[in-house]
Automatic annotation (TrEMBL):
It holds the Pfam family DUF1189. This is DUF1189 family protein. The keyword Iron-sulfur does not apply. InterPro entries: DUF1189. It comes from the Bacteria. The chain crosses the membrane at residues 32-53, 73-98, 118-136, 142-159. The keyword Transmembrane helix applies. Keywords: Membrane, Transmembrane, Transmembrane helix.
Amino acid sequence: MRNISLLQIFYKSLYSFTDIAKFRFLSIGKTIQYVFILICIYFVPSLINSIIIEKDSTNLIPDFDAGSVAIMLPIFIFFMFVLNTGILFLKVSILAYIAKGLANLLKRKLPYRLSWRLTAYSITLPTIIFGLEPLLPFTIPYGFFIDLALTFFYIYASINKMPVTKK
C-alpha cells in the first residue's frame, strides 16, 4: 500500500469505496500531495476557459490596459491558486469533522486524522466534475448541493466498508 502511485490512488478513488477506506492509512504527506493534484485539476480548466477559450484576460482583471494585464495576470493566477487551495483544504477539514460524526453513528472508529484522509480521497469525483464544469457548454444546476451529496455518498460508502468497532 505504501508504494501505490498517485495515479493509482486517483483512479481507484473514482470508483472503489473499499480502496478509499484503505487509503486512510496512507501517510499524510501522500494525502496532501494528492489534494494538491486535485486542486490543480480543479483550477486549470477554469484558467483555460478564462484565458484561452474566451481569449480575454482583461475580464479577470478589470480597469487595466493590456500591458498592465500582462504584468498582473501571473500575480492574479497565483493568488487565485492560493485561494482555491485554501477553500479545498477548508472543505476537506469541515467534511472530515462531519465524517467523524457519521462514523460514530455507523459504529465505526475513525479518528479525525484518518477521517481527514478518507475525506480527501472521497472528494475526487465531485472535484473532477465541478472542476471541468467551466469547459462544459452548460452549467450544472444546484452544483453546490450535488457536490455535497456526492461527497457524502462517497464518505458514507467508504465508512461502511470499514470494520465495525467491537466493544
